[in-house]
Amino acid sequence: MDLCFYYSELDNEWNKEENMGRTVPSFRPALEEEIESWKDFKRALRPDDQKIFDKLMNYARIHADAGSLAARPMLSEILFMSYTIEQEKKIEALQKRIKELENKIREK
Predict the structure, then answer these.
(1) What is the C-alpha to C-alpha distance for residues 22 and 37, in angstroms, rounded to an integer?
(2) Which position has the higher pLDDT, 23 or 30?
(3) Residue 90, exposed/middle/buried by CB under 10 A (0-12, 13-18, 19+)?
(4) Residue 14: which pLDDT band, with cuts at 50, 70 and 90?
(5) How, if at all, do strands 2-8 and 13-19 pair?
(6) Which of the chain's ends, N or C, has fewer CB atoms near its CB within 10 Å?
(7) Which DSSP string corresponds to 15-74?
(8) How far is CA 43 from the centre of its chain?
(9) Phi first, then psi: what are they for 94, rounded to 5°?
(10) What are the structural domain ranges in the chain?
């Protein structure tokens, strides 16, 4: 049996876990715990902002496979990187659309 130490942002402390041959706690449950730790923040948001908050949390879920390989002690780093990736994809799509519209205007 191995001992695994991990930082819980929910509890704001390091925890010890005994694992049978596993040295890193499962990422997805840890990610859900991290998301749950933000519930008071979410509750304080306006309803429209709560929808955006949920969308951001889903970005982290989308990138959970990559997050599980990152082995970062601070799960919030994975959350923020997931947000950044998804927002960059949206920015690139918008930039492409702007160029398409500019080209249409020039053609007229």
Answers:
(1) 24
(2) 30
(3) exposed
(4) low
(5) antiparallel
(6) C
(7) EEEEESS--S--HHHHHHHHHHTTHHHHHHS-HHHHHHHHHHHHHHHHTHHHHHHH--S-
(8) 18
(9) -65, -40
(10) 26-107
What DSSP element (H or E) covers 13? strand 13-19
Q: Give the C-alpha separation, 83 to 91, whole Å.
A: 12
Rounded to two decimals, the pTM is 0.65
**pLDDT tens digits along 64-81:** 888 888 876 688 888 999
Q: 64 near 82, Cβ under 8 Å? A: no
Under a CB-based contact definition with an 8 Å cutoff, are residues 67 and 31 in contact?
A: yes
**Measured distance CA(89)–CA(32) in Å, rounded:** 24
CB 68 within 8 Å of CB 104: no
Q: What is the pLDDT of residues 44-71, one digit of tens each?
A: 999 999 999 999 999 999 998 888 888 7
Specify the residue for token string 């840890």: 30
Structure token pair of residue 62: 């989308």
